[in-house]
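#dry-run=false #mode=assembly
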Amino acid sequence: MASEPESPSETVTRKTVPALPKVATGIAGFDAITFGGLPRGRPSLVCGAAGCGKTLFATTFLVNGATRFDEPGVFMSFEERAEDLVANVASLGYDLDGLVAQGKLAIDHVRVERSEIEETGEYDLEGLFIRLGFAVDSIGAKRVVLDTIETLFAGFSDETVLRAELRRLFGWIKDRGLTAIITGERGDGQLTRQGMEEYVSDCVVLLDNRVEDQITTRRLRVVKYRGSAHGTNEYPFLIDAEGISVLPVTSADLDYSIAEGVVSTGIAGLDAMLEPGGFHRGTSILISGEAGTGKTMITSSMIDAACARGERCMAFVFEESGHQIARNARSIGLDLSRHVEAGLLRFEAARPSLYGLEMHLARMHRDIDRFAPSLVVIDPLSALRGPPVELQSTMLRMIDMLKSRGITAVFTSLREDGEIDHDSAIGVSSLMDAWIKLLNVEANGERSRTLYVIKARGMRHSNQVREFMMSKDGIALIDAYIGPAGVLTGTARVVREAEEAAAALRREQENLRRQREALRRRQSLERQIDELRANLEAVEEEEALLLSEDEMREAALASGRRDLAVRRGSTR
Amino acid sequence: MSGSEPIDGEGDGALDEGHYHLRLYVAGQTAKSLAAMTNLKRFCEEHLAGHYDIEVIDLMKNPQLAAGDQILAIPTLVRRLPAPLKRIIGDLSNTEKVLVGLDIRPKADGL
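#status=ok
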């Protein structure tokens, strides 16, 4: 305790001292919210009620230290026997026996049985120190876990001695430069039953497991971190077959860089409705429509298109299994199972009620980080249930999370109006960049599928309602008939189109007739013109003839007169 | 196993079981350790003369032995025999409690 020069100086002159040295726990997310992990060379307290993951947290800290950071560790268990501990974490893929054999881990089970102990005078807990020291020295441990040291209070009656010894123990841990996790059971009115936070005060992490509406959500909060900034919120965390992961899912900034490029939807007609020929990459797209309007088929098309481009896709489905979707997609000629086998597509199917909202988000967060898809489908978004406030913030963070990674996200919603909750005005539609609405039009005893683009940020898009049809060749869009009688679809459209075609044919025939008529008239006029021209020529010929005759007559008259004159002159 | 010594049949106490195999764990020559050793020797001579052996283990020298007998407190006296195993912690200054811990009737020496 006495020799810790860094403790006072670190609080007083924090600005000049470089960041507090930290030890990465290797627990995804936890190192992020603590900006590096637990304080190096100090004990940290991890507390929480029974069954909230304290032991697992501590074990993960040791296993990661041994396997990833080359820091061997000692697990001193006051509750579970070593065999039980090994068995309990084996399901997470942790091979404690193997690590022990490699000399990277030491497990010491400290059993305290009050009935076997008779106190007969003064004592101290030097034996504990010796055992811990021996275990640490035997493998050169850098990390220590004491789980749950408060059990000692049940084994020894002299609390004064115990508290003094614990204080000495934590001082000893600091002196040895060991990074330690002390676990403690949640107590009434304080963090731990025996007030361990009094002794271990550098870093306190609180684990919580709350049940709301019969759904539990695990949460983690860094209560205190002396000398370091840390995320102060409650973060959901996840324990499953892949271990423990904490999710710092609250992001407040909107300054993520946007992904460039356009992604095709795989439906030619739909691409054509959008000016760039698809959606912008990294945007969120909402496809809303009632049951049976074809939402899943449209998302399947988008998935198929993305996988065909060689991009990775991840689909979180809440109402069907991945196999079912793949089978159904075959009916429109899409082979999704091919992409699953190629490792490009992953279905994550879960019932909405399996976890709380936070857990769903947390799970998605982790899966997305691991799989790194470029397209994420959530089908349907409306399956997620929860208190409106929580729902809204969850959606917001989910969209945020996807956008910040430049992932194109496709959400489907059963609600026609894009709202997520009936009772409130909270909607996700405003968070979406693009919104396609699917509508079944019922008329004349039949139902037709139509779709239209309600909005598409950053692109010109068609404002037309299109009818679409699903066949084994995929989804095809057809221009819907929009006329004075309203929007016509299905056979009504076909009938109307036939009528229009007939009318058009009639118009065309009439046109041709008129053209022929005009031609005829023109030809007859031309004929008349020719005739007149011929007449004119005849007249001109006549005129020329008459004119020449006149001239000849004049000439004859003149010569006659000359002859007469000659004759008269000669007789004189 | 214990050297099965002939025992007088009339007693119904722990002495019937015979030999006492005791192990005292200490950590260095601390005041408490020394006190425990002194107390133990005196006690055994008074109550168990001829029926005991004492093994003193200094954990400072043999730290690996601490885990085997689940030693936490120092000094700890472990009654290996007769069964069941008993742990008596402290400097053994409270004779009453030591007797209870070892299942020895205080009046044993009065008989």
